[in-house]
Design a protein that fits this description.
The complex is a heterotrimer.
Chain A (H helix, E strand, L loop, with lengths): L4 E7 L8 E7 L2 E6 L4 H12 L2 E2 L2 E7 L5 E6 L3 E2 L3 H8 L3 E3 L7 E3 L9 E3 L11
Parallel strand pairs in A: 5-8
Antiparallel strand pairs in A: 1-2, 2-3, 4-7, 5-6, 6-10, 9-10
Chain B lengths: L1 E8 L3 H12 L5 E4 L15 E3 L8 E2 H13 L4 E3 L3 E9 L2 E8 L2 E12 L3 E3 L8 E2 L5 E3 H9 L3 E2 L3 E5 L3 H12 L3 E6 L9 H8 L6 E2 L2 E7 L6 E6 L12 E4 L2 E4 L3 E3 L2 H6 L3 E2 L4 E2 L12 E3 L10 H21 L8 E7 L3 E3 L2 E2 L5 E6 L4 E8 L4 E8 L5 E5 L1 H5 L5 E8 L3
Parallel strand pairs in B: 1-2, 1-8, 2-5, 8-23, 10-16, 11-19, 13-14, 13-19, 14-15, 24-31
Antiparallel strand pairs in B: 3-4, 6-7, 7-8, 9-20, 16-17, 17-18, 21-22, 24-26, 25-27, 27-30, 28-29, 28-31
Chain C lengths: L3 E6 L3 H10 L5 E6 L16 E2 L11 H20 L4 E2 L3 E5 L2 H17 L5 E4 H7 L9 E5 L3 E3 L1 H14 L3 E3 L4 E6 L4 E6 L2 E4 L2 E4 L5 H7 L7 E11 L10 E4 L9 E4 L5 E4 L3 E2 L12 H14 L9 E12 L5 E4 L6 E5 L5 H18 L25 H10 L6 E3 L4 E2 H9 L5 H8 L12 H12 L18 E2 L7
Parallel strand pairs in C: 1-2, 1-13, 2-9, 5-15, 13-21
Antiparallel strand pairs in C: 3-8, 4-8, 5-7, 6-7, 10-11, 11-12, 14-17, 14-18, 14-19, 16-17, 20-21, 22-23
Helix pairs in contact in C: 1-5, 1-8, 2-8, 10-11, 10-12
Classes of the chains: A alpha+beta, B alpha/beta, C alpha+beta.
């Protein structure tokens, strides 16, 4: 590895404030992080430089529900490079109502360590006979 | 006829929060009326995170935020009328307002002492932003596309152009990209983005979606389905620069060109409207010019954080409870807010000086190293930067306001001298 | 009794009026053929919607226009009642701003009297202001035409077609006439994308395409050029409105930009007049310059217009301008059985009923036998508008059908029951629902209701939600289900 000094400017996305953070790294080690207004920003910057992660969100097809879809997310941030594969995987998943917020619909998706959990409850559609 | 102390119209975040707060403050008979079958307004279709950092101290998705709010509401006793559309309000007198609503059970006529109006906002249409050309299918507002996708599971198109870089437009750019569409550009007429920086990063940069600043969509081309849009560069006065016109092929055009408070029912009552917010003129309890009628959330001012909408719901509920228990909102004299310099608006427009007040405002254009001054109370707040996309929220407390003898308070934003 | 088969090509206001009139005869089998997915989507859909009094058209230059307009205006009074089509007979004012204009008003007065227009008067400033308080105070004189009125043209077409179909007319939608077969002396068959239709009579009421259809039977002596007009439509709450129809003194090419209030209560201004090449029969594009022209000219007629922020829609319509400028209402010179009803530019909407009654006369003259039906139904009921009825009636409607309790379009307060009824009556698209119910015609222009309407159409038509069409073929609301692109 080259003995190179790397200066990375980031906009923090942890919260809507959007701090401009400057990360200085050398040989793959972080030397300094500045510009963040909170510790979450520092944590974000460390990850963002070497292993950027995002939460993934989408909806799934949902049978027998009061809504035709159910909203889901990954239970924790996953590598941002894995997200397209997650979306593709989830496009083939169909679930059934009723579902409640927090229900796990896919465990450890694509070995990411994150589960896919329900974020919007769907009630069972009562059929009027 | 049902009689209430408070009827909240609109079951989005600010409406639910208002009903909860009113119950917590001891208001007895409270009703929440909402036109949808589910509560939360637009939140349940905002499936991304970023909600609730202030109110719940947690980063939640829109539907999770709603769920938490609804769970909180369920612990309290108030009437919820879902699938119920309010079509008329009558101001009978100081203590009596009538609310007419329609549902599958017929027309309801509800009597109430106070109203918190929190019916949200609507999106500006393609006609309101002066785009000419044909009117084929494939043109949607951002919120409409969101409903189609994340409520009904319909993919509106493959090749997408988005007009407007406000947060809604940016979030939809990412949403389309995640579902495999080709988002060809986000077009913004201003020289700076309309949305939060974090959304530029995670919605556009993550997906290599080009953001064309100082560009405008001029014309739509296509017969049955949109085929192309004509785009040009604009100068500082937003005029099209000659020879800069080009076309982008697309099958879908998403309009995300701003939101307008929905206060038609209140306008019918003849309340005073502030041309700057296009909503009601309100006092520090968010009461309109008609006593006992309060406005909160995006119906009052288009917020960029749901937490602000919730906060306004709570302030309005505080007002409603004072109205119910004290027969009105007291003020020896209402002081007018006057604006100066780089300010688009501030609400509330009237303050009593007798209690704390939370002010919400926006600037006209981005600026760095500025100060907000309120001369009458000798207050000065410095900002490293201000942007039209970022609401300014500040609390003025009773103590600093109590000394003011003038009839108005002047807010001015200007460059800081170095 | 063997029936003569009549094919009317084109289900616009003219074709629909003819269909209604011909549906009165026992011994006719009437086919109404429309290339679009719905009726009334051509010239009839986007125009000024005025029932003219009939003073504009010079009987020497344009004898058909002069004759049919006055008669049509009279007939609409009866037809709108029979068919429950909303119309307002609020009268028009032609305003003058110069001596030249004033001279033109007197010309119009004289012409109108020759055409048989009732009640025409030249009035002065104070009376102008009395009749229309938003009329420009600079107007020196005005021609007051109390018989002019306002109609909803789309509602008129659907009403006419519903009534015609009720009386036995066969409607063919999405059916494009590709060829017309003849046996040397008369027409025998229509070739369409949906098969062949044997015919004895063909009536060409195809608006902008009348020259193309006439060409199919050889040597059309006329061309139809599209004349585009652009409009602004204001929110129903936008003030000030006008209570009369305001015209400027006319120019040779058109009656000028009009300021009027539609039957739905929206202020509308337009049109300008841009002649397009003959082949641009679908070019309904608005332009920056055109809209500016409309705004400037409309401003001259009134004290003030509402703010531009109150505009909820801009649109363009096309008028079918024929060679020679007059309506072409006559049988083909040599081929028996082919009748042109073409070039129905303004005042085509007003004239339609009068022109329609001309067709049976023409058929008789050409040797057809016509026997009136004994049980012809002259009436049609309109879709109940929930927003227009009293609260007591609203409650009754909901008790009868709970779908009346579900508001689909908030801006115009349109219920699910009305949407379902529109579909039952033939709406197959979001546009069709909108034009029949006003769902999506308010200030949000459908952003709140289009998805809901798509879901209702999907349910009622038993198609996938994304297959629901907004307008014509190729205008599906989606490209597939939400996951379709991820599977590609």
């Amino acid at each position: 590895m080259s003995n190179k000094r790397k200066v990375v400017k980031l906009t923090c996305i942890v919260c809507p404030i959007g701090c401009e953070i400057e990360v200085i790294a050398e040989n793959g080690n972080i030397i300094s992080i500045s510009g963040n207004k909170c510790p979450n920003g520092e944590k974000y910057a460390k990850e963002e430089v070497f292993h950027p992660k995002r939460l993934a969100f989408t909806v799934l097809r949902c049978k027998n529900g009061t809504m035709p879809t159910v909203a889901v997310k990954t239970s924790k941030p996953v590598s941002k490079f894995l997200i397209p594969s997650i979306m593709k995987y989830l496009s083939n998943v169909e679930v059934s109502a009723p579902l409640n917020v927090g229900d796990v619909v896919v465990q450890n998706i694509l070995d990411s360590g994150a589960d896919v959990v329900v974020t919007r409850s769907v009630d069972l559609l009562e059929c009027n006979s | 006829m049902y009689t209430y102390d408070l009827i909240v119209i609109g079951g989005g975040a600010s409406g639910i929060a208002a009903a909860i707060k009113a119950k917590e403050l001891g208001v007895k008979k409270v009703a929440l009326v909402d036109e949808k079958s589910y509560l939360g307004g637009v939140l349940p279709q905002c499936i991304h995170s970023g909600f609730g950092l202030v109110y719940f101290k947690e980063d939640l998705t829109g539907p999770e935020f709603t769920e938490k709010l609804v769970q909180k509401a369920k612990k309290l006793s108030f009437d919820v009328y879902s699938d119920t559309f309010v079509f008329k309000i009558i101001y009978r007198d100081y203590f009596e307002k009538l609310v007419y609503a329609v549902s599958k059970h017929g027309i309801k006529k509800l009597k109430t002492k106070t109203i918190v109006y929190s019916a949200g906002c609507r999106e500006r249409s393609i006609y309101e932003i002066g785009v000419v050309g044909s009117r084929p299918s494939g043109i949607f507002t951002a919120g409409e596309a969101q409903t189609l996708m994340d409520i009904y599971g319909i993919m509106p198109g493959k090749n997408i152009v988005i007009v407007g870089s406000g947060d809604v437009g940016l979030i939809m750019a990412r949403r389309f990209a995640l579902q495999g569409a080709n988002v060809k550009a986000v077009i913004e007429i201003m020289p700076y983005p309309g949305g939060l920086t974090r959304n530029i990063v995670q919605c556009l940069n993550d997906f290599n979606i080009p953001l064309l600043l100082s560009h405008s969509v001029l014309r739509v081309i296509g017969k049955d389905r949109i085929e192309e849009v004509e785009v040009c560069k604009v100068d500082e006065s937003k005029k099209c620069i000659e020879d800069s016109i080009f076309r982008i092929k697309c099958d879908t055009l998403i309009i995300s060109a701003g939101l307008v408070p929905r206060v038609e029912l209140l306008e019918d009552l003849g309340i005073s409207i502030d041309p700057l917010t296009k909503s009601a003129v309100v006092n520090d309890r968010l009461e309109t010019s008609l006593p006992g009628i309060f406005v909160a959330g995006n119906a009052l001012v288009v917020n960029d954080l749901v937490d602000y909408a919730v906060e306004q719901g709570e302030v309005a509920a505080q007002g409603a409870s004072e109205f119910v228990f004290n027969n009105g909102i007291s003020a020896a004299q209402w002081k007018k807010i006057k604006l100066n310099g780089n300010i688009r608006f501030f609400v509330p427009q009237l303050i009593s000086g007798e209690r704390d007040v939370i002010m919400y405002g926006r600037v006209i254009s981005p600026e760095e190293k500025v100060k907000l001054e309120i001369n009458e109370i000798k207050k000065e707040i410095s900002f490293f930067r201000v942007r039209p996309s970022e609401m300014i929220r500040l609390r003025l407390n009773k103590d600093e306001l109590s000394s003011v003898k003038t009839k108005s308070l002047t807010f001015s934003i200007s460059k800081r001298s170095e | 009794m063997s029936k003569a088969r009549v094919a009317i090509i084109g289900a616009g206001i003219v074709g629909a009026s003819i269909a209604r009139v011909l549906s009165r005869y026992e011994n006719l089998e009437v086919h109404l053929i429309e290339m679009e997915v719905d009726v009334g989507w051509g010239v009839s859909k986007a125009n000024t919607a005025i029932l003219h009094a009939g003073y504009d058209d010079d009987p020497n230059l344009y004898p058909n226009r002069a004759k049919y307009c006055v008669r049509g205006n009279y007939l609409w009074r009866k037809w709108t009642k029979q068919l429950q089509i909303r119309a307002s007979w609020n009268g028009s004012l032609v305003l003058s701003f110069s001596e030249e204009d004033e001279e033109e008003l007197y010309n119009l007065l004289e012409r109108g009297e020759r055409n048989g227009v009732k009640g025409l008067r030249i009035i002065e400033k104070d009376e102008i202001q009395k009749l229309e308080k938003n009329a420009s105070p600079s107007a020196t004189l005005a021609l007051w035409a109390p018989t002019a009125g306002q109609i909803s043209p789309f509602e008129a077409v659907t009403a006419l077609v519903e009534n015609a179909v009720e009386n036995g007319v066969i409607l063919h939608l999405e059916t494009k006439v590709l060829d017309i077969v003849e046996d040397g002396t008369r027409v025998t068959k229509l070739v369409t994308n949906n098969g062949e239709i044997e015919v004895d009579w063909v009536i060409n009421a195809t608006g902008l395409y009348a020259d193309y259809i006439a060409e199919l039977v050889g040597g059309s002596e006329f061309k139809i050029t599209p004349r585009r007009g652009e409009y602004f439509l204001f929110d129903s709450t936008a003030e000030p409105k006008v209570s009369r129809i305001l015209f400027p003194a006319p120019k040779p090419k058109s009656k000028g930009v009009v300021v009027t209030t539609t039957v739905d209560g929206n202020l509308m201004i337009g049109p300008n007049a841009t002649d397009l090449p003959e082949e641009e029969k679908e070019n309904k594009e608005t332009t920056q310059e055109g809209l500016e022209e409309v705004w400037i000219n409309a401003s001259k007629l009134v004290k003030s217009l509402p703010s531009k922020s109150k505009v909820i829609k801009t649109f363009a319509g096309l008028r079918p301008e024929p060679t020679g400028g007059d309506f072409i209402i006559k049988p083909h010179d040599s081929l028996l059985g082919f009748i042109n009803v073409a070039g129905m530019r303004s005042p085509g909407l007003t004239s339609a009923p009068a022109v329609a009654y001309e067709i049976p006369k023409m058929l008789l003259h050409l040797g057809a036998r016509l026997v009136l039906k004994k049980n012809w139904n002259p009436t049609r009921k309109r879709i109940i508008r929930f927003s227009e009825v009293s609260n007591r009636r609203k409650n009754k409607l909901i008790a009868m059908n709970p779908l009346y309790g579900n508001i689909v379009c908030q801006c115009e307060m349109v219920t699910e029951a009305e949407v379902v009824e529109a579909i039952r009556r033939g709406a197959r698209t979001i546009e069709g629902v909108k034009l029949r119910t006003r769902a999506g015609m308010g200030r949000c222009q459908g952003a709140f209701c289009r998805a809901k309407i798509a879901m209702i159409l999907s349910r009622e038509l038993k198609i996938k939600p994304w297959q629901v069409r907004v307008k014509g073929a190729g205008s599906e609301i989606g490209v597939g289900d939400l996951f379709s692109l991820l599977h590609e």
